[in-house]
Amino acid sequence: MTGIRARFAAFVAVAAVAPLLAYGFVSVRSLQRATEESVAAGNLAVARQVAERFRDYFVSNKRVLDSVGSQLTGTQLAPWQQAIVLRNHVIDFPELTEMSLLDARGRPIVSTRSHPAPFEAPADRPDQDFVILPPELDEDRLPTTYIAVRLRERQGQGSWLVAEISLEELWRAVDSIRIGRHGYAMLIDQNGRFIAHGDPDKKALIANRVIASPDERRLAAMMETSERPVLPRVATDGGTMVAVAARIGTPDWTVIIEQPEWEALAVAHRVQRQLSVAIGIALLATVLAGSWWGRSFLRRIFALARVTQDLAAGQMTARVAVSGSDEIAQLGRQFNAMADRLEELQEEIRRQERQAMFGRIAAGLVHDLSHPIQTISNNCKLIQRIFDDAEYRATFRETIEREIATVKRVLEDLLNIARPKPIERFHVDLNAALADALRTMGPLAETAGLTLRQELSREPLYIQGDLFALGRVHRNLILNAIQATAPGGEVVVATRAAGDRVLVSIQDTGCGIPAERLEAIFEDFVTTKKRGLGLGLAISRKIVEQLGGRIRVSSEVGRGTTFVLDFPAATAVPARIAG
To answer: The CATH number of the domain where 257 resides is what?
Structure first.
């Protein structure tokens, strides 16, 4: 019996060699693939998050320049007043070290410095309105660059608003990124020169304006064309590195994250070696023990691979169930720590988006309320001097009531977005309501240097509606038409009956709206203007729809825009209105 047992054990051992080796090969390959995909997906996600953060940084500064440009071009400011606006923004935004207003030929008009840096508009792309120049080093050997926006509304010329921006914040952001203990991030410009490097030993590369290696410069194209996360190798002076890259886009810079290959795949290599030892020991064990051990081992590896795929597919809550204290558990904990970090970065991006939305609402409120408040303030100062003038007191009362009504409308717009109120319906003479709105907007059109023409139906047109709510819709659309139309243009307001419907059209000869933006203009906080809350059209559509009507728009860039309001006609007119 002893010999038989020995021969049976030997037979079982031989029979188990092939499946154990197969299991070992699959395990090694799965572990290597899962680890590389996990490291690649994690590092690439970090790189893209950082690139998105840098992109938002430049977009935010562009918005600042757009805001300054709207103040310079939208008002008749003297040069000394424009200089004060520029200096105030340089003080309010620490990253802006210089701001200059230049004419179309690059000659300074006003600047925060006595000798502003020269700027030349890109000759190869004359229609480009936003330019980011290649970075340079300032006197402190810190990276800096210039960004410029074209101000097309300045007296019909293509003037430029140029600002020098310190990239020290980006430098520090790159320094704060660590992958493992020896992994660093770096930032290179469109010419392949280093802007920032997280490795303290390689800061000299920035000061010496060293160009990145060809392998590093090819990373971005490789990562963009890959169908799944890969882990390219890069040869450097410090050995072989695994690296990923993400393009910022605007500007055309690239974020690269490098980590020594031995560190990135250390856990996989250790597990691979131990797996080989485990396979050798398993050959001497019983089939039952070897089978049980192999299944439990592979189950953990495949679980890690599945969670890696879930994370790569965007399921940020996916985590590995960690048990034990061996290398696989260590890999699982590191993977979970990486996933936690990715989730934190994603939440940070959401927080920044919420802050950006709040900033936009705040900026819109400042824009929409500053004019009526300033008007009230000026009239209050003036009434103190000429209080005895009865005619001016009447004008003062009208002005104060009008501007307070404007402030209340802005606040009501916000409240109506949060808690829409039902609209009471009465018979309304649409021609009379439009005539009243046209009288109100007439002085504004005259000041803007354009013609405000009415083509109202000769027959009375009645609908079921709210006179105040309809007035808001009419004023919003007429005001938008006036603001979009250049001096010398025309705004036409017309009404007509179409069967059992009543149509109102407001047509302008302004700049028009691009086709890709037409579907979004009625959404909350969406505007084609440089400032404002973007609630006018959203409120208008809600009011029209509450009254059973429809609003539609057609536009052609460079030729103008037409808004059409379509209401059901009132079925009967009360005698007191008809008479």
So the answer is: 3.30.450.20
